[in-house]
């Protein structure tokens, strides 16, 4: 009865960790495409092909529902996968919508026309591919009007996190926040548009200042997932939970254990 969670690397562990707290009785099968990480510097076709292959693998392993716990994959591949059709009884969902619903204070399933919201100036921190896709702005436009979004491409942050160099990651975050502030001096809210970035949330918050509300995806996605599974219990598939990677299992296990501060053991996908 496993639910699949996919990421290009380890960032999706922030979503998995929150999902396990919200849904302690649900087994999750986590798939990290570490051999091809990071996705944020790849072109859209490459991201689509890699994402589709990984999701198909999770479906084949018994997962009826797969969460793309990767903003880059959600931006570059999700809509195309859904438009081209998914197998009967299977679903694939992304991580943008729960975040935007929280930002715009809309309830799940609220399909009313877009309206003005309290927050007018939003900073978006994301990978180069996510920024280039403008997927966040597109989804936001379905729900809100009058919101100014300034996107900052955060090159190098995912690489540093995947390599375990958190000192470099912190320095890069501060640099990217400084660059954003030169374009938008007074953001009201900041969206961490990559599931790796919650690992640096304290650094983002410190650099932005206490008056900026930082939106991070873990708990928001987990809460939406819990609601979704309550309404669609048939999406609890077959098979067992665990951790799979296309990279080197030992190396990926060590990094995952470091991030989550509990023993995580990956197997070869």
Description:
The chain is α/β, with parallel strands linked by helices. It folds into two domains: 3-94 and 218-268, Rossmann fold (3-Layer(aba) Sandwich), CATH 3.40.50; 97-216, Rossmann fold (3-Layer(aba) Sandwich). The protein is 45% helix and 17% strand. It is built from eleven helices and twelve strands. The strands form three sheets. A six-stranded parallel beta sheet has the order 4-3-1-2-11-12, sandwiched between helices. Helix 1 links the parallel strand 1 and strand 2 (28-32). It is globular and about 50 Å long.
Shape: globular
What is the tally of helical segments?
A: 11
Strand content: 15-25%
CATH class of the largest domain: Alpha Beta
| N- and C-termini, Cα separation | 19 Å
Structural class: alpha/beta
Helix content: 40-55%
CATH topology of the largest domain: Rossmann fold
Q: Strand order of the main beta sheet, please?
A: 4-3-1-2-11-12
Q: Can you count the beta strands?
A: 12
Cα Rg: 17 Å
List the helices and strands and how they pair.
Layout: E1 3-7, H1 13-22, E2 28-32, H2 44-60, E3 65-68, H3 71-84, E4 91-93, H4 96-104, E5 115-116, E6 121-126, H5 128-133, H6 135-141, E7 144-145, E8 148-153, H7 157-162, H8 166-183, E9 189-192, H9 201-208, E10 213-215, H10 217-231, E11 242-245, H11 249-260, E12 267-268
Parallel strand pairs: 1-2, 1-3, 2-11, 3-4, 5-7, 6-8, 6-9, 9-10, 11-12
Pathway: Cell wall biogenesis; peptidoglycan biosynthesis
Family: Belongs to the aspartate/glutamate racemases family.
Active site: 70 (proton donor/acceptor), 194 (proton donor/acceptor)
């Amino acid at each position: 009865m496993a639910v699949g969670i996919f990421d290009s690397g380890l960032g999706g562990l922030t979503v998995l960790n929150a999902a396990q707290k919200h849904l302690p009785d649900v087994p999750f099968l986590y798939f990290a495409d570490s051999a091809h990480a990071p996705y944020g510097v790849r072109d859209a076709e490459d991201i689509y092909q890699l994402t589709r292959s990984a999701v198909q693998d999770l479906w084949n392993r018994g997962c009826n529902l797969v969460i793309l716990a990767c903003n880059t994959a959600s931006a570059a591949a999700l809509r195309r996968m859904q438009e081209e059709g998914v197998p009967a009884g299977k679903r694939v969902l992304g991580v943008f919508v729960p975040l935007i619903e929280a930002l715009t204070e809309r309830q799940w399933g609220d399909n009313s026309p877009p309206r003005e919201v309290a927050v007018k100036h939003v900073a978006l921190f994301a990978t180069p591919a996510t920024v280039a896709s403008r997927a966040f702005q597109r989804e936001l436009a379905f729900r809100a009007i009058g919101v100014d979004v300034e996107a900052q491409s955060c090159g190098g942050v995912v690489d540093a996190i995947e390599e375990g160099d958190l000192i470099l990651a912190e320095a890069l975050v501060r640099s990217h926040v400084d660059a954003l502030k030169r374009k938008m001096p007074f953001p009201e809210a900041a969206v961490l548009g990559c599931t790796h970035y919650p690992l640096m949330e304290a650094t983002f918050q410190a650099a932005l200042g206490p008056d900026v509300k930082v939106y991070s995806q873990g708990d928001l996605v987990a809460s939406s997932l819990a609601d979704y599974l309550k309404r669609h219990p048939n999406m609890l598939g077959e098979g067992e939970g665990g951790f799979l990677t296309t990279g080197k299992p030992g190396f990926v296990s060590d990094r995952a254990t470091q991030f989550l501060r509990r023993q995580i053991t990956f197997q070869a996908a």
